[in-house]
Amino acid sequence: MKTREAVKLFSVVQVAQILGVSTSYVYAQLASGELSRVVELGTSRQKSRVRADDLRSYVARYYSVKEAAEILGVGDQYIYDRIAAGEIQNVVQLGTSKGKQRISSDDLQAFIEARSYG
Length: 118
What we know:
This protein is an alpha+beta fold.
């Protein structure tokens, strides 16, 4: 008989702590479908749970400024300047520090394509 592995679930508060954001931000991501809500344990939205795999997938869709700079072969400041100029859009702010900014893989790809010739 095959045994099933337990699925790790996180509360909205735990997800907010992991991402360094407010619970309001997590609820907004759940409402928009950006982050999958998997289990409702009761009728209160405080009973929402997010699967660990869904949280990992959500985080994997975003690059840190450092990762984006490494992909482009530039310094971090170049990325911050492009964000400030509005050339890289839809930057997600995880937490309050500048180092917590994340760039979606789609937006980074659009930035690259806008600067590609041929």
